[in-house]
Amino acid sequence: MASSGWSNSHCQSQNQRQQHQRRHPFPASPLTLLPLLFCLGLCLGMAASAGSGSGTGSGTGAGTSPGKPASLQMAPASASSSATGCSLAEYSCSNGRCVPLSKYCNNLNDCGDGSDEPRFCTRCNRTYYGDIGQTYSLELHRPKQDRVPFVCVLTFTAAGGQHGDVVQVTLDSFTIGRFTSYVHEGCPDGYMQIAESARTPIGGMWCGSSWGPVLFYSETRSLIFTIKLNRLARDQSGYNFDFRIRYKVLSRDSAVTRYGGIKLAELAQWHNRSSFLNQQQQQQQQQQQHQQDVGILEDFTNSSGARSDRYGQDFSLFSAYVNNKTFMASLEKSLAKDEQNYTEPKYYLGDLIPGTYCSRIFSDCDKKSCRLQSPNYPGIYPRNLTCYYAVRQHDVPHGKHALILVKQPKGNLVWISTQETAAANKMAPPASVSDKDKKFEPRLKTWNDCDYIQESVKPRWKSTDYVTVYDGYTTRDPIILKFCGGGQAVPAAVSSGPELLVEFSTSPFGTFTGTSSQVLPLYGFQLEVEVQFVDIQSPTYSKNKKPCEFWIRGAGRGILENPKHSLAPNSTCLYHLQGMGVFKTFDHLSLSRRINSQSGMHQPLSRFKVWISVLKFNLDPEFGQMDETSVGAIGVLQTQEDCSGMLRIWDGTLRDPPVCKDLNCVTESNSYNTVGHYSHNTTNVIARFCRGTIPRTCDRSNINETYARPCTISESYVSSNDAITLELRNTESTVLRPLDFKLKYEFIDLHQDGLPWGGGEHDCNRKFLSSMMDRKDPAIFRSVRNIFLFGRGGTRHLKCIYKFEAQRGERVRIKLRKVTTTNRNCYSRLDEDINRSFCYGDTNVRVEIFERPYHDSILLHRGCVCNSSNQSHLPVEYTSTGRDVEVHFVAQNMTTLDDPDTVNFEGMFEFVKAPTSCKDGRRKFGPSGTIDMTFGDVECRSRPWLIEPSNGNKFLYVRLKAIFLSKYNPTKTLNSTYLQTDTWRCETKSRAVLTTSEGLTIVACPLSPDSNGYEFVEIFSSGWNERPNFALINRSRAISVEFLRPGNGEYTFNWMELVPRPTLSMAEDCQFKCPELGACVNASVWCDGVVHCPSGDDEAFLQCSALMKLPVEILATLCLIFVLSCCAFAAFAIKKIKRKFRGTSVLQTRLKSLSSMDTAVLDEKEKKGSVETKI
């Protein structure tokens, strides 16, 4: 064999190794120190000869290039080299040549002088170094019988710098004894142990045979292999020892799978994949020589068949490009190293707990890229160890709760072997190649599949090759996930708090199974860590791990979903939904027990009810199974019910999770402990949701929760009392079978202030009696909050009446301090003249105040309040003049956006003492009348005058001498009030208010009869302008006249009854009528000395003179005499006039004739004179 010289890589990095060795001196082993000193003198004067080195299974460039200059070969290599000029990874031959340490004692004369093959040499008990970019081969031969038991220790060290930071060892062929068991004397014939130099040995053993290459990666600077063979095969024909390995050293930056931080590199032009596939076999040998940083990617090929590697790249294409020299050379051109040139940051692998082999602590992973890795990842993990990975979140934002999540979406980064060997079962037939491939088909196993293995001696043995995830910081906390195997994504396991513990256990004995000979996977596992924050007050996590309970109390509504964290198998979570009053109930209306017992009235037993609308329920299929309900080419519906995860709705409150013999818990429904407020509270199942069932749901709300049609009672569930319990039960971990649900809940507040007025749960009419109140202080009354009476609950129209009844000598004072009428444009304005509020705009939702002057009279409108934009005048206060007041809460044409939060009011009421006892009657009937508004005491003048017609077929007409100020008509939709600024013309501060039964209100400034102003205000009964309309027959036609802020003076008004004139021409017209009004009036108003008709026809002379009351014959004779007298007088006057003008006419004729003759004579003379002149 030709002797070895300096390698190219050694010469190029000569100065770098020298500087690095000064910083990091590494002591040479005693076995290598003596040969180096022996060859020191020889190497100083020896010239290197050109030659090519060869070695068995050597990787890249073990020998030097031919024709290398001697000056370069004689130059000092580095500080790590001995005085002979050989590097730390090389053996110094006696002739001055340098060969890799792996070629020492390999039965080949690599030095050329035999100095690398001394007598009785051995490869054991030595330390092997390497250079980055070089791959070294090493083989141990089968010992002879007299050398058994055979023990060999091999140490592989990465010295840093050019000599690497991580050691990679590949077992190309491995057979040591036989493997019998994972946990009990599993390696009787021999074993191999692997240890780290800086850590305490753990004693795990490997034996048996490997089916393909197996990789080891060190976590420290050195890997120590201990090989022990206790006995050889008895028949000497079956070899039970074979040990061939390759090793190399890697830099920390190139170990991106373990430490992260992939560099951003410039890729060359894309090449056709087929060209690389054709070159794959030809370049297989060159692959080992040029495999540097990307060499890790070759060894980390996904054995699971997944098409992406750890970083999302297409591995099916990239596996071919790795073997291409041109393509791999293009990847070596990297940019300058800085934070901008990394596609993902460096991993945080935790802090090693002192005194442990692999246990680590992780903290605040929301700011770091935390990764949980098995020891020696991505290589084979050791045997006989238990590692704990404790993750804790210390920094939690205020008002938030931290949840720890571990997952691995890339299945090729997880491979935990739990398979048995074929040798373990002697009765089993030999496995074929297809059986082996099927055996190692990538599949993630969980729970029971990781708890045992099948063996020949004993039926089951506990296997410890699995990962366990605890919902907490100790092993006493619930287990939410347990898995082994690999090749599939590990689903997310989420803790219920800021702490999570991952335990990784391996068996004491093991064999190298878990891969086929075609694909080389990663070993162990790597898990990603994330931190999620949820609201600390939200029901998205269980505050106590055992039991899992949620308490939701209040009077509002919300969305309830499944817990955001994972649930352990056989878990039960109880959601206790109970209504509780937010507002204090009205306690001023305290009824005496005697009255209650006599009247039979009582408050409802439960103030609240719970309304549940399930929007979504989903239980995933078993882990690893296809979802048969998914719609693919052919949609398949599941017909079999699966209740391994279910949601039950209980009508009532449960103290403990129920234990039922059937799914509906019908047989034992009466035995559950209930925590109800009332003895009649029974707890039974009203709904059950399982996979495959079609229960009552309201899933349309998932599309649009705001504008979707509200859920109806037929699509929902309503409790019979104030509590509902949701039972979420799962038999499998929700990590593997997610159990999701989403529902809307709402606490229906049935409480209403006052006493019921009517009947039924949905009746909102209430009354407040002064006679039944112990206290007379101001009290609060509010609008109803029963959602089923509003638009979102399915009701379109709502009208609630609140009636207040005072005792004799009392009045009612109402104060509306809060009114909300959202989703419509409406506001109210206060009329300062009369201190009353009126509504403007869309008055579909409003609060109105009415007063009943007498117990059997009509209600009179006294104010209206609405508020949609906070522009309304609030509060509004009204003090009645009588004893009965009603507040009407009206909501018409409601939509799904209307609920008790958007449509409501709040007010106060008080029964106050009247100033004086007014005994004068102010209720008037009759065909007509005149009333002096200043009649009676001043305190009583503000009481309203109620004018009512004598029967239902007649209308009223009221006329008042006054200045018109404003008008309010609630029947108009928009701009129903007309205002005039004529208040400066008023002679007094008093105001007259005229009101009809439909709420039409006119405000006027009264004028005295002797006032110079000639202005009148008039008003008709309700329905006068809408006739003929038979729907208005039952409408009251009374009119109220109020004299507010009364003062001294003479102010009167009059009224009269009207009947519409006949509309048909053939009908007989009425005798007494007001033509301008188009009405017939009673005969009593005709010529009664008071003007009732606006034109005054009822008091005209022709209508009211005594002469006009004579009989017709006499009136005709008188008229004839009068006419004849007039004619005689006219004839006489004409004759007298003619006689007077007759004398003067003769003289005038004569004078005219004389004047005409004179004029003619003069004319002839002038003509003659003119003729003579011409001649």
From TrEMBL:
CDD domains: CUB, LDLa. PROSITE patterns: CUB, LDLRA_1, LDLRA_2. GO terms for cellular component: plasma membrane. InterPro entries: CUB_dom, DUF7805, LDL_receptor-like_sf, LDLR_class-A_CS, LDrepeatLR_classA_rpt, Non-NMDA_GluR_Accessory, Sperma_CUB_dom_sf. Residues 7-18 have a biased composition (Low complexity). It comes from the Eukaryota. The chain crosses the membrane at residues 1114-1134. Residues 1-45 form the signal peptide. Pfam families: DUF7805, Ldl_recept_a. Disulfide bonds join 86-98, 93-111. Residues 124-250, 358-532 form the CUB domain. Residues 1-26, 54-74 are annotated as: Disordered. Residues 54-64 have a biased composition (Gly residues). Keywords: Disulfide bond, Membrane, Signal, Transmembrane, Transmembrane helix. This is CUB domain-containing protein. It comes from Drosophila madeirensis.
